[in-house]
Specification:
Blueprint (H helix, E strand, L loop, with lengths): L16 H33 L15 H7 L4 H4 L4 H16 L6 H43 L4 E5 L5 E3 L11 E8 L2 E11 L4 E8 L8 H4 L5 E8 L7 H20 L6 E6 L4 H13 L4 E4 L3 H13 L1
Parallel strand pairs: 6-7, 7-8
Antiparallel strand pairs: 1-2, 1-3, 3-4, 4-5, 5-6
Length: 315
């Protein structure tokens, strides 16, 4: 009953209104941060495009041909699936149908249409950003737990795909981290994020294994005995989607429980959510009392996050 370290009843799990407001602010700030490169690109585009006397002159400026495709509505993925002939034809249609009718304001029209496409791609990435922010927050809490307990750990760098020895005081490593590994009481534990587990046949938010970092390979993921714990992490902060997040997580955890029970195994299961409403909190509490869940926490409560991180590190 590790959850009693930070929970006394279902009410403790409910997200306070002020934390919901703070969550929306955090998402807005992150949206602005991610939009900054697009705004700078648009400014650069305006400078280059201003060299053109007429819309058709834009075709002569080599530096902005990719930006013209973007303004024409091409995503980065779409560019890779079309040939040069079709790309040129699309740019010509952009000029004929939209830039020429804009008259002397054709540069502004071009910039607006560039930002429109970039904004659409940003909207797509924002659908995943709440989960990323949640992952970073929990990762930082786990690293803090490892540091305070003087536990040796390594982290896997997303860019270089190499394991790096943890120092405890590194700033912002959670921004480029995709796995953690530590040694506790002579046993190695490795935590991986967002991996499809063969036995379950579904992507799981968090998986804790009893293995060395260099053992994280497809073959290892097929060994049920290697798994110590599974967790579902939901970072969405909109109360309107709370029940749906919980249903998705509950379905995943139930599937894990059934799959491992068939192998006579019962790994630890936990749930961490940013927005937890009353009826959802009651269900989670019931699962905790019945043993269907081993632990749970509200992501917006620093004490709960610290407690569940300590528990995870101690497994």
């Amino acid at each position: 009953m590790s959850y009693i370290q930070h929970l006394s009843n279902s009410t403790d799990l409910i997200t306070p209104p002020e934390e919901i407001r703070s969550g929306f602010v955090a998402l807005a700030l992150e949206r602005n941060r991610l939009a900054t490169p697009f705004v700078e690109q648009a400014r650069a585009l305006k400078v280059f495009a201003s060299q053109a006397n007429t819309p058709s002159d834009l075709l002569k400026i080599d530096e902005i041909q990719d930006a013209l495709l973007t303004a024409a509505g091409f995503s980065d993925k779409a560019v890779g699936h079309t040939d040069e002939v079709n790309q040129t034809r699309t740019i010509e249609q952009l000029i004929e149908n939209f830039l020429e009718p804009a008259g002397t304001e054709f540069v502004e029209e071009l910039v607006y249409r560039f930002l429109l496409t970039r904004g659409d791609s940003l909207g797509g990435s924002m659908r995943n950003i709440a989960g990323k922010l949640a992952e970073r927050k929990l990762t930082r809490a786990i690293i803090s737990a490892l540091t305070l307990t003087k536990t040796t750990y390594q982290w896997l760098n997303t860019v270089s795909n190499t394991w790096i020895e943890g120092k405890g005081g590194e700033a912002d490593i959670e921004l480029s981290l995709k796995a953690l590994s530590w040694i506790r009481d002579g046993e190695t534990r490795t935590l991986i994020y967002n991996r499809t587990i063969p036995l379950v046949r579904k992507n799981i938010d968090m998986c804790l294994l009893h293995c060395d970092p260099n053992e994280i390979k497809p073959a290892t993921l097929r060994v049920p005995e290697k798994f110590i714990a599974f967790g579902e992490l939901k970072g969405g902060i909109d109360p309107a989607g709370a029940d749906e997040h919980w249903k998705t997580a509950q379905t995943a955890l139930t599937r894990i429980r059934a799959a491992f029970a068939a192998e006579n195994l019962s790994p630890n299961l936990f749930f961490i959510g940013a927005v937890i409403v009353d009826n959802m909190a009651q269900e989670i509490w019931k699962h905790l009392e019945e043993g269907a869940l081993n632990n749970a926490a509200n992501l917006t409560d620093a004490d709960q996050v610290a407690s569940i991180s300590n528990w995870l590190v101690s497994l």
